[in-house]
Amino acid sequence: MKSITRAKPMEAVLSGLEGYDRVFIAGCGTCATMCRTGGINEVAAMSRALEEAGKLVTGTLVIPTACDTLTQECMDQNREAMEDAQVTLVMSCAFGVQTVSGYVGRPVQPALDTLFFGLETGPGHFSEVCMQCGDCVLADTAGICPVTACHKGLLNGPCGGTNNGKCEIDSAIDCAWTLIYNRLKEIGRLDLMREYCKPKNFQAMAKPGHVDIIIEGG
Predict the structure, then answer these.
(1) Residue-wise pLDDT tens digits, 67-107
(2) Is the pTM of this model over 0.85?
(3) Exposed, middle or buried by CB within 10 Å (0-12, 13-18, 19+), for 54?
(4) What are the backbone dihedrals phi and psi of residue 177, each rounded to the nearest 5 degrees, phi first?
(5) Which of 96, 90, 87 is nearest to 27 (CA)?
(6) Burial 66-76 (b: 16+ CB within 10 A, else e)
(7) Cα(122)–Cα(118) distance, rounded to whole angstroms?
């Protein structure tokens, strides 16, 4: 799964950089590159836009994966340019922004909004597949998540608004419960549609999430 991001409006980026004249730009070579929001081309375009706005760009970097442990090594290789900047503008998901922030010791500004974790279902098309709720119901819905796929998050569907297999809220999107019904029918488990699903426990995982795994022999 990838972090799906969207570029903030340029006005919002410039507002966040108000008071800073020297900027270092860091992008991400993985998710943000796939979304065309923080790859080589987007970082270069942002550099030009900031210079046109009167900012001095001290340097740019596209980190292979902005949220992993190699981030610090990549930043160390660009330490001089980064230290010459007053602020680092990060063109990655929120995870990458937080990772960079932990290493730079200077103000960090996000250039993107993180929308969801999902898959690329076609060139330039991305779909959320899991909201990581901590209370999975996929065993009862033939592997299709109604929490993410249904606009209303219904656990006992479909609602009365489905029309020819499409959602009443967005006619371009398939009704999640129609998809679930069809797949349950294919695998001979329509009986699961008749079972009542209890209200969703949205506190199954305390926030912020943290899990300790016991490793035998460790």
Answers:
(1) 887 888 888 888 899 999 999 999 999 989 988 888 888 88
(2) no
(3) exposed
(4) -75, -25
(5) 90
(6) bbeeebeebbe
(7) 12
Cα–Cα distances (Å) from 117 to 2, 4, 37, 148, in that order, read: 5, 6, 15, 11
SS3 sequence of 141-160: CCCCCHHHHCCCCCCCCCCC
All structural domains of the chain: 2-115 (3.40.50.2300), 130-194 (no CATH)
- The edge-to-edge listing of strands for the beta sheet with 125-128 is 2-7, 112-122, 125-128
**H-helix or E-strand containing 63?**
strand 56-63
| Interatomic CA distance for residues 81 and 136, integer angstroms | 46
Other residues' Cβ atoms within 10 Å of the Cβ of residue 84:
12
Q: What is the C-alpha to C-alpha distance for residues 158 and 162, in angstroms, rounded to an integer?
A: 7
